[in-house]
Amino acid sequence: MNAVKTGRGTAPVEGGEVAYLVVGDGPPVATTHPYTTPKAGHTPVPGFTTITVWPRGFGASSPARDSADYGFWRLAEDLDAVRQHLGLDRWTFWGTSMGGFVGLIYALRSQDSISALILDSTAPSHHYKDDPTSLYPKARAAPEFDRLIESPSWETLRDYFVLRSRMEGSDYPEALWAEGETTHDRNPFAYGEIMKRLEEFDTRSRLGDIRIPTLVLAGEDDLQCPPSQARLIEGGIPGSILKVYPDCGHGVIRHNPPGAHRDVAEFITAALERGE
Predict the structure, then answer these.
(1) What's this model's pTM, rounded to 2 decimal places?
(2) Strand runs (DSSP E) across the chain, as ranges?
(3) Cβ proximity of 116 and 90 under 8 Å
(4) 46-83 burial code (b ≥16 CB/10 A, e <16)
(5) What is the pLDDT of residues 11-40, one digit of tens each?
(6) What is the pLDDT of residues 87-134, one digit of tens each?
(7) Among residues 35, 64, 117, 172, which one has the fewest Cβ atoms lying within 10 Å of its Cβ?
């Protein structure tokens, strides 16, 4: 097992560099998200080395050169550049929400780079936005969504995310946004650009090509990527394992329901043992 030096750094990628943070000790687990990243890095996975990767246009990473730099496909390429820069043969990848979209693309492109795959509160294609059990059909029909796509700015991004938090049942959506401004790196252009290209994302017909040990996590109360989407992934990836947690919303790692970290640790450990 390759050892990785803890701390912050940058890795060279085509046309720039991307920032990363390494914390903890143990087998490496990488994670990223295409449109928001905690300034302090993603939640560490107990018992493992956790590696947060900042996309282009976020934190200390290079600015995006064009709209394609905000896409899932470019981020999947950059992830593997970070792995190689750190001298790792393979690592586990944990992707939450649209980070899971990146994980699916990454797995289909670079299976030999990934020892285990964790797909948390995510979906196999852009059709999640049409799922009647999701909030997105209503959110996308709202004027706040149109304004964000047509005129991306901090103001239109805020208005849309406040709307979405309210749809999820938050009593204080404005306070959640304000808190996020201090805790997360954001980019007012990334989300709009991602949504413009969203319909290019569809891995359903290729899920059977993924031969990496895969754990699919879902919250029973998730209104963004409902459990129905997790079941599509489980049904498509051979041998994948699905865990659905009651009383849990979007982002299992964020809500940390009882037993979730234990389930993840046991899954990664078993996957690594089988791969030896």
Answers:
(1) 0.96
(2) 7-13, 16-23, 28-32, 36-38, 49-53, 91-96, 114-120, 184-186, 214-219, 241-245
(3) no
(4) ebbbbbbbbbbbbbebbebeeeebbbbbbbbebbbbbb
(5) 999 999 999 999 999 999 999 999 999 999
(6) 999 999 999 999 999 999 999 999 999 999 999 999 999 999 999 999
(7) 172
